[in-house]
Every structure is written in C-alpha cells, then in structure tokens.
Amino acid sequence: MKKIILYGVGSIELRRDIEYFLDSSYEIIGCSDSHYAEDVLEEKPFFTPQELFRVEFDYIILLHFQDDVLEKMRQYLLAQGVPNEKIIDPVMFLHRNSEKCQLDLIADIQERYVEEEGLIFGLSYSLRDIRIEQLNRRFFDCSWSSLDLYYNFQIYRHMAGEGLLSAVKTAFLVFPYYYFDYDMSRFLYLYRTGYIFSVWRLNDWHHSDQVPGAASYITNYKMFGEKLSRFYHFKKFGYQSRAVYQGNDGEAVLNKIWFRNYDETAAENRALFTQFLHSLAENHITPVLIIPPFYLRGIDQPSRAAFFQKKEKFYTILQGVRADTGYAFKIFDYAGFFADRPEVFMDLTHLNTRGAEEFTEIINSDIL
Q1: DSSP letter string over 68-121?
Q2: Is 184:124 a contact under the CB 8 Å cutoff?
Q3: Distance in angstroms (rounded) separating the CA atoms of residues 232 and 212
Q4: Residues 6+ apart with CB under 8 A from 257
Q5: I want to staple 122 with a disulfide (CB 3.0 to 4.6 A). Which of 17, 143, 246, 350 is the partner?
Q6: Phi and psi (nearest 5°) for 71?
Q7: Roughly what angle, to the nearest 10 degrees, separates helices 149-161 and 105-112?
Q8: 333 pairs with which residues across the strands?
Q9: Residue 263 CB contacts under 8 Å (≥ 6 apart), including other chains
Q10: 245: closest CA among 336, 337, 357, 352?
Q11: Chain-centroid distance, C-alpha 328
C-alpha cells in the first residue's frame, strides 16, 4: 500500500476528487499546508512542511487549480527537503482535462469485440472518415484520436495475446503521410489533452521518460485511472458532423507535424511497421493500407510543399520495407480524392458525415 499526503487542506473539490477516484492500492495518511496548522476540514492527521522529511510517504499531491501556484508549492516543498519525484500535480483533475472523454480502448475490445472478420487501425481519420456500420463486411474499429503506430501495434498484440484473431481476415491500416514521423509518447500536449490515457491499461508509456512533465501524468494514471475510467465509461460511437469546412482556399496551414522530420522516430516506426506486417502474415491477415482524404485546395503553398514532401518520404519508407521483406500489401491512396470538395469536409483534414458516407461506399467498391 503506497502512502499519500495531500498538500493544501482547504481545496475541497480536489480533495473529494482524489478521495473518490484514488486506487485501492494507495492510502491517504494525512495532509499538510503552509498556511494552516491543522486539518480544519476533517481533522485528519496533519504534518507541517517542516516535519515532512521525518514522515514516511510515497507521494505528496499538490491541491490547487492554478499552474503558477502549483509551481510555488513545489518550490516551497523542495526547500523543505521533499524529493521532487515525490511531488505530484493532480493533472487529471485540472482544467477539465479530457481523460474523462477518452475511450478505454482495451476495455472496449473486451466488451464489444465479437469475432469480426476485419480490424481497422489508425487515428482520427479512420475514426471519423469511415462509417463502420456501412461497410459491406463486419469490421471492428481499434483506432482512436491521435493514436500512433506504436500503440496501434500494441493493441493488435494485445488482441493476439488474448486469442482474438482467429476470425480476422483483413486489417485496414488507415495512415496519413506523416505517420512514420509521429510518436505520441514524445508530445507533452497529448498527455495534457488526455489522448494517451486511452491506452492506460497497457501500462506501456514508450518514450515518456524523455518528455519533461510526463511523469506526473503517468503517476496520476496509476493513482486514478481505474476508477475514473470506470466512472466516465462510455461505449464507442460513430462520430457525426454536418458541419462544412468554411476556410478560404489556399490559406490554411497544416499541423506542425507535417513540417517536421523526426528521423529516429521514422526509423523506429519503419521497424514497427515491418513487425506489424510480419505478425499479420503469421496470422493469415491481409493488410490493406489506406491513405485518407484531405482538402488540399484549402492549404497554403508552404503546407502544400510540406504535404508532398511527407508523401515522398512515406512512399520511400514503404518501398524500402517491401524491398527488405518481400511483403506484399495493397495501397489505396485517397489523399487527393476529395481535394476540391469542401462540402464533404468538417475541417481541413477530416470528412463530415456526408463525406464519410461517400468515402465508405468508395471503400466498399474499391476494396471490399
């Protein structure tokens, strides 16, 4: 049982959140504060900051909603001799962070998978652009917003380890051109916005140790993930949007990932993709690589240049994988298919409901 101290006795909302969602393997042994000399709310055991160096505990959780105050609290405790690695911000309860809105992907497989003959892997493009109930064959969607190649592969490996692949014949790999340069575990933004919490049950945080600030999130996931996920549980649903892209043609700027090259990540993802293909072949599953549509007429010239540079890099990696392994996989490239049709896009890179219905019928016709 790990021991917890709460720092900031008067922060009632955060105290109740932590008490309610704290995992049963943790125990709150008391509280502390630099302004109060006792727990004025509930008379729990109280330790002055100056006493903390004599108290045996695993973590002290700071209770405040403002980042600047949290930093001042941290600096004060450091001055009292509390080790930095024991001081934790309550990041899962700050600023309505979106962990509460993330699907528990492993639980979703456990609850809903019923031996569909197809699997879909990818990120928000497959999640929003394909109407799974409209496909001519039964598919199960494993994708989720911002999910990178590493975690898609880990979800696949989880399913293989659970013996869930016997009925699967086809795997759609819905990847954008920048995918080999993308590693979600290296972006603090994806911890702050909660997206990486969708894979918390894997307890695999990949390169998080190279990201300053990520450790607080991972500790929070271990402390509160089980109960918070259970409380905010929801089933996977098909995204719908009747919105139509309203931007001016030739003016939009693509996301920063399109402009950056991460050669170490690209090399790692190339090796992961090869492993993915090898495992699919071992399980007699046919991979189908699908590049999703983008509203190309909307982007400015620097974005357009970055887009086609990423396309060249993407195909160079694919050709290298084919040459090295001999694996055959079909590629269906729809990146420019709706390039001048704003009416089928909800934003620059995602189809709206009308576009998703049209695109799904194209997949039925071209692939299935």
Answers
A1: HHHHHHHHHHHHTT--GGGEE--GGGSTT-GGGGS--HHHHHHHH----SEEEE
A2: no
A3: 28
A4: 178, 181, 182
A5: 143
A6: -70, -40
A7: 40
A8: 291
A9: none
A10: 352
A11: 29
| Helix H or strand E encompassing 227 | helix 214-231
- Per-residue pLDDT tens digits for 13-30: 999 999 999 999 999 999
What type of residue sits at position 247? G
Tokens linked to 292? 């999703």
* Local confidence band at 328 (pLDDT 50, 70, 90 cut-offs): confident
- Cα–Cα distances (Å) from 91 to 120, 171, 187, 216, in that order, read 31, 36, 16, 7
Which pTM was predicted? 0.94
Torsion angles phi and psi, residue 135, rounded to 5: -65, 150
**What pLDDT is attached to residue 331?**
97
Instruction: Please give the torsion angle defined by the CA atoms of residues 255, 259, 264 and 266, in that order, rounded to the nearest 10 degrees.
Output: 70
pLDDT tens-digit map of 199-252: 999 999 999 999 999 999 999 999 999 999 999 999 888 888 999 999 999 999
Token readout for 188 is: 């603090």
**Alpha-carbon distances, residue 162 vs 109, 152, 358 (angstroms):** 10, 16, 35
CA–CA gap between residue 62 and residue 71 (Å, rounded):
9
Query: Considering only CA atoms, which of 251, 331, 261, 341 is closest in space to residue 299?
Result: 251
Residue type, 110: Q
